[in-house]
Amino acid sequence: MSETLQTTDAAACDADLLGRTAIAVRAAGSALRERFGEVVRYGTREELMRALAANDDTALNILRPRLTRLRPDADWVEAELDAGELPPGEWWVVDPAEGNVNHLHSLPEWAVTATLVRDNRPVLTAVHLPLTGEMYTALTGAGAHLDGRPLRVSRTAELGLGIVATSQARPDEDETLVRRVGSSITAMLLDALVVRVAVPATLHLLNVAAGRIDAFWHFAGARADLLPGALLVTEAGGRISDAEGRPWTPQSESFLAAAPGVHAEAVATLSR
Questions:
Q1: Which CA distances in Å does 23 have to 26, 28, 29, 70, 126?
Q2: Is 95 labelled a binding residue?
Q3: Residues 194-249: tens digit of each pLDDT
Q4: Edge-to-edge, what's the strand order for the sheet holding 134-139?
Q5: How far apart are the first and last CA of the chain?
Q6: How far is Cα 1 from Cα 117, in angstroms, rounded to an integer?
């Protein structure tokens, strides 16, 4: 078999796998939607962690067996908050309830994500927003889509005309990083048209891929937060780097996704 035919067969296999992954992600989202509505009250950190775990387990009980059947030899990232590179091979990087705290507070900004990573490169991703029914998908070399419609990043060419966004550091982050986040927000408030600050990161990245906002930046961050959106933005024609403009990897200490027309300005702002 020629190399061209092998490549074509592999692409077709990945496209089929993406479709099946989206079905699994949608099923997990339906289960979480059934749990959504009333604000979940908690009085201690332990009660909060139990409530978060209950949502995670609800989705994982659906995702883990289905994704394992789809790719039996792929490993599974157990800790969704981990960062850094993965060992060689295929890995499922899953966030069963991205924006879990929002879900507990009856806020609409949450999703279910599943990304297949091959030798530290995201190959395909499916991100489902159960409250709207939207399904965002991306496949390397085949583009990014919303419910089958192609996505493209914005054509904004001036940061001063752009809407930008970031996500806060974790509640237990060290003070130096928290202050860095604050300083970056101040810098963007001076240079951009509008600055949005909210969790989760993935939903901002969906908006970059769809051309609704022009840039998203983040410091540190976990694989499960950034890999789905990184693939979606890249396949939608956007640029991915760290905050200083260098190539981004899961080991990077910062992250920037932007429309090409504002990427350089965003780097300059974040580097001040």
A1: 5, 9, 10, 11, 9
A2: yes
A3: 999 999 999 999 999 999 999 999 997 677 889 999 999 999 999 999 999 999 98
A4: 75-76, 90-98, 111-118, 121-129, 134-139, 143-146, 149-150
A5: 53
A6: 26
